[in-house]
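Hi V.,

You were right to ask for the full record rather than a summary. Here it is.
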Amino acid sequence: MLIAMFTGAALSVSGVLLQSVMRNPLADAGVIGISSGASFFSLMAITALPQFYFYSPLFSVLGGAIACFLVYVLSWKGGLSPIRMILVGIAINAMFTGMAEAFVTICSYFNITINQSGQSNLTMKTWGDVRLIGVYGVAGLVVALFFSRWCNLLALQDKTAKNLGLRVTRMRLLISITAVLLAAVTAAVAGVIAFVGLLIPHISRRLVGSDHRVLIPFSALSGALLILTADTLGRTLVAPNEIPASTIMAVIGGPFLIFLLRRGTVSMDIREVSFSYDQQKDIVQSVTTQIEKGKITTIIGPNGSGKSTLLSLMANNHCPNKGQIHLDGQTLNTFKPKELAKKARCRPSAK
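Predicted structure:
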């Protein structure tokens, strides 16, 4: 029960932090490979060095950090596309999962005892496991609460945040480390449980809004309740047999991810767009922003600042000299005129 609650709280808050840092509403440690990377490194370390079991979260953090770094590097292509990041993350997740299975198989050939802590299982846990996830998990949750104000500021454009005197790169790094720690400690104790960090943050935002000072503690409580419920259902539905909580979450989370991918939370994604009419002076310079569905976005600025030019770029009347504009995940200039006319319109004001 305690392990289930700590697991749910840690994974939920990890999802909130990752979505804030990556600006990707689909980011989840179990989906993009962070949990599987953490589980793989923990499995290898405590199999080779069982006397360091209490330090297994440190090995897990290393594996999770490597997985997170790979997702960042391999997803970057003139910017971070949410869909590309998910696809790369799924590939990273499959890679580490396959490596873990291969490691177990190879060890079985040599009659090497495998510590099964990396498997997804909330049963047969000891008070040592409770102490392990309690110490590291509570520490990570407290740090996450301390970073809640930073998460709110990361919603601003990087240039705006820097103008306010914020060290954006350091903020992202520290928040990412905290998110990886929370996901890694759960992978070390409870195994890989996906979709918790995807489900809970979205539901919590609907209920309490996007202020991370409220969102983080609410997500922690909601995640603890969700995993506790999933674990209880798994123990009672086919008793005396048991369905792992990770299986129940996969059944629930899979369709939810498909729903989010089809629905989309961002209609237009503008990344580092610059444009000039004479190839000398940029009218629009390095603009990065996202326009969400169902919301009214206002572009404000003095005369000659490039408002009309930016709207013309968004309507595909001009092509950016630098950067890209995506509409529903697709590059704007790949739309056919009739297809684009159904999705976007630009009506210039009369002079």
